[in-house]
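Posting for a labmate who doesn't have an account.
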Amino acid sequence: MCRTHYETVHLKLRRHRCGICGKGFSQNGSMNRHQKSCEAPELLLSESGGYVCRYCSEYYKSKGAARKHVKSCYRRVFENKQL
Protein backbone atom coordinates (compact mmCIF):
# COMPACT_ATOMS: atom_id res chain seq x y z
CA MET A 1 0.00 0.00 0.00
CA CYS A 2 2.82 2.40 0.79
CA ARG A 3 4.39 1.67 -2.59
CA THR A 4 1.12 2.39 -4.42
CA HIS A 5 0.75 5.68 -2.55
CA TYR A 6 4.31 6.69 -3.36
CA GLU A 7 3.93 5.86 -7.06
CA THR A 8 0.58 7.60 -7.58
CA VAL A 9 0.97 10.63 -5.30
CA HIS A 10 4.67 11.41 -5.37
CA LEU A 11 5.79 9.97 -8.71
CA LYS A 12 2.44 10.78 -10.37
CA LEU A 13 2.38 7.42 -12.21
CA ARG A 14 -0.79 6.78 -14.19
CA ARG A 15 -0.93 3.08 -15.09
CA HIS A 16 -4.52 3.04 -16.42
CA ARG A 17 -5.06 4.68 -19.83
CA CYS A 18 -8.29 5.66 -21.55
CA GLY A 19 -8.55 3.61 -24.74
CA ILE A 20 -10.27 6.51 -26.51
CA CYS A 21 -8.21 9.62 -25.70
CA GLY A 22 -5.15 8.20 -23.90
CA LYS A 23 -5.56 10.19 -20.67
CA GLY A 24 -3.86 8.45 -17.72
CA PHE A 25 -5.33 7.57 -14.31
CA SER A 26 -3.92 6.11 -11.13
CA GLN A 27 -7.08 4.08 -10.43
CA ASN A 28 -9.02 1.82 -12.78
CA GLY A 29 -12.38 3.08 -11.45
CA SER A 30 -11.51 6.67 -12.30
CA MET A 31 -10.51 5.64 -15.80
CA ASN A 32 -13.78 3.72 -16.30
CA ARG A 33 -15.83 6.77 -15.22
CA HIS A 34 -13.83 8.97 -17.58
CA GLN A 35 -14.29 6.57 -20.52
CA LYS A 36 -18.06 6.90 -20.23
CA SER A 37 -17.75 10.63 -20.94
CA CYS A 38 -15.28 9.99 -23.77
CA GLU A 39 -17.83 7.73 -25.46
CA ALA A 40 -20.43 10.53 -25.45
CA PRO A 41 -18.49 13.82 -25.65
CA GLU A 42 -21.67 15.91 -25.72
CA LEU A 43 -22.52 14.59 -22.24
CA LEU A 44 -20.61 15.28 -19.05
CA LEU A 45 -20.79 12.95 -16.05
CA SER A 46 -21.94 14.62 -12.86
CA GLU A 47 -20.55 13.73 -9.44
CA SER A 48 -23.96 12.29 -8.46
CA GLY A 49 -23.76 9.77 -11.31
CA GLY A 50 -26.14 11.40 -13.79
CA TYR A 51 -25.45 13.17 -17.07
CA VAL A 52 -25.22 16.88 -17.86
CA CYS A 53 -25.73 18.47 -21.28
CA ARG A 54 -22.51 20.16 -22.44
CA TYR A 55 -24.45 22.94 -24.16
CA CYS A 56 -26.95 24.06 -21.49
CA SER A 57 -25.90 22.20 -18.28
CA GLU A 58 -29.28 20.52 -17.83
CA TYR A 59 -29.11 17.39 -15.63
CA TYR A 60 -30.52 13.94 -16.44
CA LYS A 61 -30.44 10.70 -14.47
CA SER A 62 -30.45 8.41 -17.51
CA LYS A 63 -28.07 8.45 -20.45
CA GLY A 64 -30.92 7.86 -22.91
CA ALA A 65 -32.89 10.90 -21.75
CA ALA A 66 -29.75 13.02 -21.79
CA ARG A 67 -28.86 11.98 -25.35
CA LYS A 68 -32.40 12.71 -26.54
CA HIS A 69 -32.20 16.18 -24.99
CA VAL A 70 -28.74 16.87 -26.43
CA LYS A 71 -29.95 16.27 -29.99
CA SER A 72 -32.60 18.99 -29.69
CA CYS A 73 -30.37 21.30 -27.64
CA TYR A 74 -27.51 20.99 -30.12
CA ARG A 75 -29.80 21.97 -32.98
CA ARG A 76 -31.10 25.01 -31.07
CA VAL A 77 -27.61 26.18 -30.12
CA PHE A 78 -25.99 25.82 -33.53
CA GLU A 79 -28.95 26.93 -35.65
CA ASN A 80 -29.07 30.17 -33.65
CA LYS A 81 -25.33 30.75 -34.12
CA GLN A 82 -25.67 30.58 -37.89
CA LEU A 83 -28.35 33.31 -38.01
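Reply:
Got it, the C-alpha coordinates are right above this. The mean pLDDT is 80.
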